């Protein structure tokens, strides 16, 4: 069921009369400043009762109200100290573990009365739910701000796809301010264990951090390692980094079985920032009829033959001595890592053949193996050094890149700590190189990798009530096409690695390549995709984020047929014979022919996307997510069409985005058009005028219509129209960057995206208008 939509209240502040009742704090105050403000009330607002808002202004005055909408939209001012007291209904308190009040700095407020992304945390107050009433207190910055009340943990920075609203936990949001922000920074860049942060219980962890703050600020750090709401260790003054501190001197804590969320609160005396990290202390209990026979000292190996249901699969276990073969009865479960993917088999028949134990049975899931416990890993790059082909067709070569020791005069690389973090959205290749040859026509050189950001399982006797999975596969590929080729290739299945578990959770890879080319070329593509899935008592919540890049060389070929090469790499986490969650990044590199005005162009491009799903016993746990292809230009090579090209005439012509295309949102999009008179629009007093409309429709709030007329610039910060001459007839090509990012108008609630340009060229007015519709990923 889709959650109810937020309610936006647009208020032109006039006067405020509050019924004082018997509380002298609620007496009405005169001289309310009139201005426009915005408050977004989400369905979570119905969870609050007994609300009271106190606004301590820096002139020493105080406003108090029980009306949050009126108080935040009419009475709040920059630099206010905001105090919000409230109670939470029992049902909402049971559904959520924490509530947060956070003030953010923003770079402005756009014409839709939304903050300009990305809002950055300025002051944060968060608390766990479990009491009767709550009091949260934050200070507003002296500039454009956003104030959010939300369930759950604070976000240090908000983005369109990573915000309280996008995560359906926003209670209310208010914006205000009228000046650009120049506040001193206060942020937790990193807070993490310097060890792995996971392992068999008990887990001992030392904690390091890296802070950003005004050099003159005196910082205080409060560490709540056992998450009971009270600080266990306080550093005052607190150093900004622990990078040069020995591990033994860092704060330390030991954790029993389960997932733990230690916290850090940093304060400069005026405001505070919050950060948390994860510790996984693991222990799994297995049901009494489950056996791990591969752990016996006399075990030699296993052969596994998988058969589709209803046929029985076979596991043959080899031991040293027939006299000491283990006893296994029908109905029991045998678990091991042998074979291509491991096995979890409910035994139906047992045969002893010399020193071999032959088992026939059917695959089972976790609920038939685990009796309880917890398992979690984090920030785990899968070791792919044992990569192997398990199903034809196999690579012609598998080259495992060795970890070479430092040579003479070289410095050995320091091992990566959990505190470190890569900021590259597509990590460099570090795994094996797979070489697939397709006859004399070409080769695919392919380097896969996979990071497990999170993998959590809470288990009871009958089910898995909680799961949290985030996996990021990466592909780097080079495609060499030596002659014309149109063909699709499926390259079988490869085993990449496994999780450090007694139960067999393996990573399998199933690559596919499709080539359409009339002549030779080389191309490279790189892509990563992070799939996330979270399960609790409310069901599954999922997400998918992709990054793509590419290069192409067509060896200077003249204008000719288009070409492309598309690589699909399906990374599957398997449980024995059974498939589980999968992420399948897809990347294309190619060349297309375009008509650009009076020129014909070869345009090299990349495209990409991904799919994320979870399969179990032939069905899906949730609907698979598919990302619509994003695209980008690598290079463009154009040549004049010739004297038959008609001269530029008529009204404006839209160049990008063209009609019917998908908007490229991997960078801030620009709108490009050509029009008569545009060669002189760099002059503010030019009589040549243009009206630009950007439109979209929101299913709750209606039409969004962003209009800029070049006749009035007025020093508006969103004005960014740049034109260059085109030809000798006064035409120009103009690039316009809208203040409201059209990529923000994506998602299921937005539709009817379009933009248009009207030229007003004296003596005529309102020359023909060009209109383009487009989709937003």
The structural class is mainly beta
Largest sheet report: 10 strands, mixed
Give the end-to-end Cα distance, rounded to a whole number of Å.
22 Å
What would you call the shape? flat
Q: Percent of residues in beta strands?
A: over 45%
User: How many H/I helical runs?
Assistant: 2
How many strand units?
50
Helix content: under 10%
Mean pLDDT figure: 80
Outline the low-pLDDT stretches.
1-37, 403-423, 681-685, 713-718
The Rg value, from CA coordinates, equals 31 Å
Summarize the model shown.
The protein is an all-beta fold and 777 residues long. 2% of the residues lie in helices and 53% in strands.
Written description of the protein model:
This protein has 2 helices and 50 strands. Strands 12, 17, 20, 27, 29, 30, 31, 32, 36 and 37 form a 10-stranded mixed β-sheet that branches. Strands 28, 33, 34, 35, 38, 39, 40 and 41 form an 8-stranded antiparallel β-sheet that branches. A hairpin with a 6-residue loop joins strand 34 (493-498) and strand 35. Residues 1-37, 403-423, 681-685 and 713-718 have low confidence and may be disordered.
What structural keywords apply?
53% strand; ten-stranded mixed β-sheet; mainly beta; eight-stranded antiparallel β-sheet
């Amino acid at each position: 069921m889709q959650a109810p939509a937020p309610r936006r209240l647009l208020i032109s502040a006039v006067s405020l009369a509050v019924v004082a009742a018997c509380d002298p704090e609620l007496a009405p105050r005169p001289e309310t400043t009139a201005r426009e403000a915005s408050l977004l009330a989400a369905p979570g607002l119905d969870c609050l009762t007994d609300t009271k808002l106190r606004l301590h202004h820096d002139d020493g005055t105080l406003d108090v109200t029980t009306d949050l909408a009126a108080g935040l939209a009419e009475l709040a001012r920059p630099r206010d100290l905001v105090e919000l007291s409230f109670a939470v209904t029992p049902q909402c308190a049971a559904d959520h573990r924490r509530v947060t009040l956070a003030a953010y700095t923003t770079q402005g407020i756009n014409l839709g009365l939304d903050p300009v992304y990305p809002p950055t945390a300025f002051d944060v107050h968060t608390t766990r739910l479990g009491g009767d009433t709550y009091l949260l207190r934050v200070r507003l910055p002296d500039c454009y701000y956003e104030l959010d009340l939300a369930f759950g943990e604070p976000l240090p920075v908000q983005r369109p796809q990573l915000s309280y609203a996008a995560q359906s936990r926003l209670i209310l949001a208010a914006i205000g301010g009228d000046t650009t922000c120049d506040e001193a920074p206060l942020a937790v860049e990193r807070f993490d264990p310097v060890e792995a942060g996971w392992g068999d219980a008990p887990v001992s962890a030392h904690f390091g951090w890296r802070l950003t703050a005004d050099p003159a600020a005196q910082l205080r750090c409060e560490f709540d390692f056992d998450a009971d709401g009270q600080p266990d260790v306080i550093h005052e003054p607190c150093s900004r980094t622990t990078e040069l501190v020995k591990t033994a001197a860092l704060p330390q804590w030991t954790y029993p079985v389960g997932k733990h969320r230690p916290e850090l609160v940093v304060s400069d005396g005026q405001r505070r920032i919050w950060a948390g990290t994860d510790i996984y202390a693991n222990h799994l209990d297995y049901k009494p009829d489950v056996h791990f026979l591969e752990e016996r000292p006399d075990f030699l190996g296993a052969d596994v033959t998988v058969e589709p249901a209803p046929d029985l699969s076979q596991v043959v276990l080899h031991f040293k001595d027939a006299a000491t073969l283990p006893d296994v009865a029908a109905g029991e479960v045998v678990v091991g890592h042998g074979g291509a993917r491991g096995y979890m088999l409910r035994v139906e028949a047992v045969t002893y053949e010399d020193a071999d134990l032959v088992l026939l049975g059917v695959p089972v899931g976790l609920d038939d193996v685990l009796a309880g416990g917890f398992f979690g890993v984090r920030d785990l790059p899968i070791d792919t050094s044992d990569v192997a082909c398990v199903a034809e067709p196999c690579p012609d070569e598998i080259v495992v890149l060795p970890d070479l020791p430092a040579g003479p005069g070289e410095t050995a690389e320091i091992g990566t700590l959990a505190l470190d973090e890569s900021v590259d959205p597509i990590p460099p290749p570090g795994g094996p190189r797979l070489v697939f040859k397709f006859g004399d026509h070409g080769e695919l050189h392919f380097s896969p990798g996979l990071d497990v950001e999170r993998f959590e399982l809470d288990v009871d006797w009958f089910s898995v009530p909680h799961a949290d999975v985030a996996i990021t596969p990466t592909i780097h590929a080079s495609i060499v096409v030596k002659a014309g080729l149109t063909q699709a290739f499926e390259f079988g299945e490869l085993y990449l690695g496994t999780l450090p578990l007694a139960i067999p959770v393996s990573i399998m890879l199933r690559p596919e390549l499709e080539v359409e080319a009339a002549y030779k070329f080389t191309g490279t593509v790189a892509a990563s995709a992070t799939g996330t899935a979270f399960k609790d008592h409310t069901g599954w919540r999922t997400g998918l984020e992709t990054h793509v890049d590419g290069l192409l060389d067509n060896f200077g070929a003249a204008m000719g047929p288009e070409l492309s090469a598309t690589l699909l790499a399906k990374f599957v986490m398997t449980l024995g014979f059974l498939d589980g969650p999968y992420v399948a990044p897809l990347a294309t590199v190619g060349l297309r022919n375009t008509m650009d005005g009076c020129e014909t162009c070869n345009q090299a491009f990349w495209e990409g996307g991904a799919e994320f799903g979870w399969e179990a016993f032939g069905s899906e746990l949730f609907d698979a997510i598919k990302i619509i292809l994003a695209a980008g230009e690598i290079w463009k090579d154009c040549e004049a069409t010739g004297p038959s090209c008609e001269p530029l005439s008529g009204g404006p012509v839209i160049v990008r985005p063209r009609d019917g295309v998908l908007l490229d949102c991997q960078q801030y999009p620009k709108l490009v058009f050509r029009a008569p008179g545009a060669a002189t629009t760099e002059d503010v007093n030019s009589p040549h005028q243009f009206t630009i409309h950007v439109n979209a429709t929101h299913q709750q709030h209606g039409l969004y219509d962003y209009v800029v007329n070049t006749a009035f610039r007025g020093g508006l910060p969103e004005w960014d129209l740049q034109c260059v001459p085109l030809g000798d007839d006064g035409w120009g090509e103009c690039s316009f960057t809208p203040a409201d990012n059209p990529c923000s108008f994506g998602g299921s609630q937005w539709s009817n995206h379009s933009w248009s340009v009207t030229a007003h060229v004296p003596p005529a007015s309102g020359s023909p208008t060009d209109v383009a519709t487009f989709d937003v990923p």
